[in-house]
Amino acid sequence: MAEGAAEWEGPAQPDAAGGEDDPRAGPEGAPADGGAVAPAGRWRDRRSGVVLPGAAGTPADGEAGLLEAARATPRRSSIIKDPATQKGGGRKKTVSFSSMPSEKKVSSASDCISFMQAGCELKKVRPNSRIYNRFFTLDTDLLALRWEPSKKDLDKAKLDISAVKEIRLGKNTETFRNNGLADQICEDCAFSILHGENYESLDLVAHSADVANIWVSGLRYLVSRSKQPLDFMEGNQNTPRFMWLKTVFVAADVDGNGIMLEDTAVELIKQLNPTLKESKVRLKFKEIQKSKEKLTTRVTEEEFCEAFCELCTRPEVYFLLVQISKNKEYLDANDLMLFLEAEQGVAHITEDMCLDIIRRYELSEEGRQKGFLAIDGFTQYLLSPECDLFDPEQRKVAQDMSQPLSHYYISASHNTYLVEDQFRGPADINGYMRALKMGCRSIELDVRDGPDSEPVLCNRNNVSTHLSFRSVLEVVNKFAFVASEYPLFLCLGNHCSLPQQKVMAQQMRKVFGTKLYTEAPSPSEAYLPSPEKLKRRIIVKGKKLPPDSEASEGEVTDEDEEAEISRRMSVDYNGEQKHIWLCRELSDLVSICQSVQYRDFELSMRSQSYWEMCSFSESEASRIANEYPEDFVNYNKKFLSRIYPSAMRIDSSNLNPQDFWNCGCQIVAMNFQTPGPMMDLHTGWFLQNGGCGYVLRPSVMRDEVSYFSANTKGVVPGVSPLALHIKIISGQNFPKPKGACAKGDVIDPYVCIEIHGIPADCAEQRTKTVQQNSDNPIFDETFEFQVNLPELAMIRFVVLDDDYIGDEFIGQYTIPFECLQPGYRHVPLRSFVGDVMEHVTLFVHIAITNRSGGGKPQKRSLSVRMGKKAREYTMLRNVGLKPIDDIFKIAVHPLREAIDMRENMQNAIVSVKELCGLPPIASLKQCLLTLSSRLIASDNTPSVSLVMKDSFPYLEPLGAMPDVQKKMLAAYDLMIQESRFLIEMADTVQEKIVQCQKAGMEFHEELHNLGAKEGLKGRKLNKATESFAWNITVLKGQGDLLKSAKNEALENMKQIQLACLSCGLSKAPGGAAEAKSKRSLEAIEEKEGGEENGKLRP
């Protein structure tokens, strides 16, 4: 359940001490605090005294109605509309009343403490699966936490702050993990207080993630300041932030009177934060002055600082800052380094790099000199391009460009000359400029006879406006390689007479010169040349005269697909194909993209040449994809396929390109002039690989012998599924939807997350609605998606305005899965037409973990347990040919070994994370930091020592240890042992798998002959071929996964050792431990560098 805890309500239970039912609890399904029902069936919180940001819920009996309403009124710009098809079932509409404009934001530890002292209701979770509503407060002396009602004595219904050992956010204790109702509790609303020598837990659930963050931040601050708990109250006006603001105020106070005009103060705050609206700043000053009963509008230094802090402090960023700074209100270089390494996935970070970041983003001179980053500088850093969601490595060409052209997806435009609809739209030269600037690599030229023997481009439905063919060629020549230097395809729609065809050929040769690629294809080759080989070349796609003809002209079939569709729909269509005349000069310009008609896959695989390509209408391609998905993928390994939209799309709407990319179709032509969800997918997909217009297909869709079905609804053989964890934290500066006028300037935003890819990966989830907040709505909701083929998946974030009449589009951002960066990121939203909207962002947290094995270096190297279900093994299929099946049977045991080694290591890692109280998405460095905090005494002496055994980092106790620490050490030892076993055995097991794969491949060429000898024909022979390809794919994939797992384990050992050194766990008697550790670290690095024996060198 992704909703906040306030949406789940159950009957209150008696306290463990025997107390009666909580008097605050209402009837089942109603708010426990006696809230009232607002119009439209929404619950409103009416508690007085303390504002609960985000306290919200919906009545249980209203869920069905709301879901029905959601089905009846599909969201605009949402691609996946049916809630019944979504993973995890339909999502009910819920409303949060958090972050109302008049509320005071949390901007300091003092605000957190004040909130806690006022108190609020929390749910107390017990190990017996019971949940109690209790009112929690912090004593005024800040020494104890109390709750009521309780039949315990007042002195017992409390927890001393001095006894608190640790505060955990999320469901990260045994109580939460074993509670039968845990699935109904929102992860972001749960937190636990560990106390006492045995680390007992007080497990709580807040009404919203905001409230949970306030309690966690406040408690952590108190625990870290337990020796002098009142210091924060004394120094609130002397923090680095306030000192900087005073400096800014003094510099602007030209008269030196300590006051300034309101207009000056408003302008000054807007200079410091350009995203703020002037009306909002003025309203804040009026609120402050009214609270002080002032009559003057002049602003004092104190009022200026107060207004700035309340307007410019984002609570979610403040909570993050406090968390990573060890409860300070600023980051030093070490804090920032740990944040970048453990949370953001940045490798090879140094202290100097962190100090450079501080110097560039810290706003105060004092901070820059002393090396600390306060809240405003940290906010600026998180909003900077350095924290972009999009991987900077993918902003340049990062993929192998030496593969055949048929192995790439290619950005393609349909009817490029149009900027309006295809029914009546005029031809416009801007269509070519726009497409080429966007990195499009396949454009269309629909050419007809023009006046004065000059060919022209025009819409067949609007011949009154046309473009000179030569002028179009000159524009194409100018912009062809501005956005990409890789080959450009010209798809010719030839409707010209023979004389004007000759003019076309002459003009193309003259304008393009040596850029034209006219080399005859070599019959000795099996595949098309690569994009790398064809850099800055222009390739003409069109009809070609037969190679054995020497005539200067000849008759060929017509390639005008749309005209053919129209002709077939006419009443007098007799099934005959239309023919046109083609001149030799134009034919000679066509080399490796010769248009041919598609018949069937069997004929194509037998007789089609690699330089011939087929075009498919949208409807025809959809039929083939549904009926022959595996054949379509295999066909596209060698041949180019072009898909064009249906002629029935007279409004120039777009097809869904993902449906055809799943089949491996390379050239899916899009109407670039029509914005919307489908164009968002196309634009987002081709942002990767430097935006060059070419994207390498997944290896399972390229390998000559491999199995892949476009309609797969489960795990892809040989590919490790990944779990994508997305937390939608907040939004910034959402504009009012264009054309919306019913609600004035008020919007009620919510966020949809769409996953696009193979059918098994398609999913959609949505957040709650935050009412009446466009400036900084807080969502704080976490979602998890399983992605079975990451290389073909995309994530689309869509922000919508919740309206019962029809939800309005606010903004969206689409990004390929492989381009995601982990950690805390801002998503730059785009408008409906695809333009980046200034200062309009989503603040999110991204983590990617393994689901069932394997992993990729750095940002893909996290591990997560598969749960309690039985382990699943990838099964090999029976081919039906005994010699081949005997070989594959040999591979069964090493395959099981490989899966067992990977999953045993990952389960051991997750066990350590659980005992450290960390979620599966946490890094090992975060684990070691948590572990060290428990293993190092208050006098800085460790209770364990890092000992290198055969270059593996073990921890040995230095004396007697409590049971809690013994349990953690046992889990740590198991993790090292499982990692060591995998590192030492991986090469041997992988070699067995590879040998079986090689032995199987020796039968590949003779497969059909062997099948014929065994009497296999038709469907049975095809089934045998498919099973053979499946087995080869599994063997190759599992071998690669084991190799990746070994690299992951080696990297883990290195990171653990470095973390132990930095945490002080290597301080053993004798002083030689650290030197030995460094020598062992060098041994690990040597092993990563290419040792062959599979064991670490001592």
TrEMBL record:
One of its GO terms (molecular function) is phosphatidylinositol-4,5-bisphosphate phospholipase C activity. PROSITE patterns: C2, PH_DOMAIN, PIPLC_X_DOMAIN, PIPLC_Y_DOMAIN. This is Phosphoinositide phospholipase C. Residues 702-831 form the C2 domain. It is found in: Cytoplasm. Its main location: cytoplasm. Signal peptide: none annotated. Residues 1075-1098 have a biased composition (Basic and acidic residues). It comes from Pipistrellus kuhlii (Kuhl's pipistrelle). InterPro entries: C2_dom (IPR000008), C2_domain_sf (IPR035892), EF-hand-dom_pair (IPR011992), PH-like_dom_sf (IPR011993), PH_domain (IPR001849), PI-PLC_fam (IPR001192), PLC-like_Pdiesterase_TIM-brl (IPR017946), PLC_EF-hand-like (IPR015359). It is an enzyme of class 3 (hydrolase). GO terms for cellular component: cytoplasm. Pfam families: C2, EF-hand_like, PH_12, PI-PLC-X, PI-PLC-Y. Residues 586-702 form the PI-PLC Y-box domain. Gene3D superfamilies: C2 domain, EF-hand, Phosphatidylinositol (PI) phosphodiesterase, Pleckstrin-homology domain (PH domain)/Phosphotyrosine-binding domain (PTB). Its EC number is 3.1.4.11. Residues 114-224 form the PH domain. It comes from the Eukaryota. Residues 1-102, 1067-1098 are annotated as: Disordered. It catalyses: a 1,2-diacyl-sn-glycero-3-phospho-(1D-myo-inositol-4,5-bisphosphate) + H2O = 1D-myo-inositol 1,4,5-trisphosphate + a 1,2-diacyl-sn-glycerol + H(+). Residues 26-41 have a biased composition (Low complexity). GO terms for biological process: gamma-aminobutyric acid signaling pathway; lipid catabolic process; phosphatidylinositol metabolic process; phosphatidylinositol-mediated signaling; regulation of synaptic transmission, GABAergic; release of sequestered calcium ion into cytosol.
